[in-house]
């Protein structure tokens, strides 16, 4: 079986834009022409590929087709440009990462490579417990995730540990935790949460105080504003050491539970078969992460063995 290139492009455009109308604009076609091409691909494969909702989304079968088409397009683009002696031609790589990775080590690590190799990244930011689903659903070709197990056809490489601490401003502590960081105080003190997928704070309060919700929360879904909100006394919350060091050193925030940091293990997931530039991008990302994240003893031992 062979895919018609036009049918695959129409399917990708609908998923990427979220609608047949926007896909038509992107492809310079009519909506009916896009619909006919997608329908032809569905007929060829004998199964629906798109849930016609707002926005449109891929069915389970569509996710598998999406995985294949994204990888095939990247492999083809990279191969043709290299064959033509134009390896510097741009390729687009969709990645899924968590916000704290994006806000700390990822861009400084990848920027020289992306510039030198002319790679355009299409970033989707989601909670580290949910980025894996974006890879599985064909929306990314690599991701940073807390999931240690690789799905079929992929490799999961340990990156290291991102350590988080529960922080608050001195003024906030004086107001809400003057008698200590206790269960009773935590029940009424405003908490900062990144978004509704963020379970770090909730897990901490459940584990240490047996609290299962009911406390007031601010939701601040951006890395730098999250720490800024803590410094301004809006609430308390968990911040990675890679981000909070200067604020802690300057006394703008304090660690409410210095003996109880939370360690989040991160992994780089990628397909075993990938384009040359994505292969090199993966090597750069893994090496950079291991240079800045905390490393478990077994990771260090594996690194030594790899060098021997």
Brief write-up:
With 308 residues, the chain is α/β, with parallel strands linked by helices. 50% of the residues lie in helices and 19% in strands.
General description of the model:
- The chain is of the alpha/beta class.
- Among the domains are: 1-58, Winged helix-like DNA-binding domain superfamily/Winged helix DNA-binding domain (Arc Repressor Mutant, subunit A), CATH 1.10.10; 162-263, Periplasmic binding protein-like II (D-Maltodextrin-Binding Protein, domain 2, 3-Layer(aba) Sandwich).
- The chain is built from 13 helices and eleven strands.
- Helix 9 (200-209) links the parallel strand 7 (191-193) and strand 8 (217-219).
- Helix 1 crosses helix 2 (20-27), helix 2 packs across helix 3 (31-45) and helix 5 (99-117) crosses helix 12 (276-292).
- The longest helix has 24 residues, at 60-83.
- It starts with a helix and ends with a helix.
- The relative contact order is 0.14.
């Amino acid at each position: 079986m062979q895919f018609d290139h036009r049918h695959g492009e129409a399917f990708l455009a609908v998923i990427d834009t979220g609608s047949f109308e926007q896909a038509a604009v992107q492809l310079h076609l009519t909506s009916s022409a896009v619909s006919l091409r997608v329908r032809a691909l569905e007929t060829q494969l004998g199964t629906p590929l798109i849930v016609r909702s707002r926005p449109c989304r891929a069915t389970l079968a569509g996710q598998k087709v999406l995985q294949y088409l994204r990888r095939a397009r990247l492999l083809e683009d990279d191969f043709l440009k290299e064959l033509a002696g134009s390896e510097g031609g741009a390729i687009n790589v969709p990645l899924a990462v968590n916000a704290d990775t994006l806000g700390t080590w990822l861009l400084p690590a990848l920027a020289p490579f992306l510039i030198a190799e002319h790679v355009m990244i299409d970033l989707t930011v989601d909670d580290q417990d949910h980025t894996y689903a974006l890879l599985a659903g064909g929306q990314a070709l690599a991701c940073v995730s807390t999931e240690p197990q690789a799905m079929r056809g992929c490799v999961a490489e340990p990156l290291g540990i991102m350590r988080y601490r529960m922080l608050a401003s001195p003024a906030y502590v004086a107001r809400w935790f003057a008698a200590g960081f206790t269960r009773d105080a935590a029940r009424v003190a405003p908490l900062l949460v990144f978004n509704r997928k963020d379970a770090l704070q909730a897990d901490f309060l459940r584990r240490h105080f047996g609290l299962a919700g009911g406390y007031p929360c601010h939701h601040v879904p951006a890395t730098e504003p999250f720490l800024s909100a803590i410094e301004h006394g809006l609430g308390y919350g968990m911040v990675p050491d890679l981000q909070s060091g200067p604020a802690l050193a300057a006394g703008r925030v304090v660690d409410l539970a210095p003996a109880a940091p939370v360690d989040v293990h991160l992994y780089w997931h990628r397909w075993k078969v990938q384009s040359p530039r994505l292969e090199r991008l993966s090597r750069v990302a893994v090496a950079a992460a291991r240079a800045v994240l905390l490393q478990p003893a077994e990771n260090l031992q594996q690194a030594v063995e790899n060098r021997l």
